[in-house]
Amino acid sequence: MRTKTTINNTHDFGVGRRLISLPQLRQIGFAANRRVLEVETLTHDCHLGAEAFAQLQRPAQVEGQHVAALPFGQARVQALFAVLVALLPPAPKFQNKQLGGLLAQYLGLSEADLTPGRISYDLRRLRLPGLIERLPAPIAIA
Q1: Quick one: which of 5, 37, 41, 46 could link to 29 by a disulfide (CB 3.0–4.6 Å)?
Q2: C-alpha distances out from residue 61 to 56, 58, 101, 117, 131, Å
């Protein structure tokens, strides 16, 4: 892969178009290339991604608590990840009941088939490895 930076309008960077501005433009271009390469390194490092993926598929201990594995091939795990993708963009906050309704749809079950305890277990499986975060309850002011 090859990365090139082109500066079409030097005034976007507060620099003139004369040859005297060339050293400044060169610094701007190098800085932009370094940032792009850093992002590419982070997003394309398959080794780190593969290790994180493998860790999710193994049971673990987090803060003294047993974390069940999330084997990617299981239908329930696939449904959990699909529900997360469906819930997160529009509503970064969701509740047990919202997850249960969508999870039942993805698994082809009725909502009555998924007990609140089972949904809480699934939420715990996502929370302990850091895939989701429990937010504190809002404080009611009387």
Answers
A1: 5
A2: 12, 10, 29, 21, 15
From the centroid of its chain, how far is CA 138?
25
Compute mean pLDDT per 10 residues along the chain, 142 residues long, and list them.
79 89 91 82 64 84 87 89 77 75 88 88 87 78 70
Exposed e or buried b per residue across 60-91, where buried means at least 16 C-beta atoms within 10 angstroms of its C-beta: eeeeeeebeebeeeeeebebbbebeebbeeee
Spell out a b/e string for 16-45, using b for 16 or more CB atoms within 10 Å of the CB, else e. Answer: eeeeeeeeebeebeeeeeeeeeeeeeeeee
Q: Are 119 and 96 in contact (CB under 8 A)?
A: yes
Element (H, E) at 43: helix 22-43
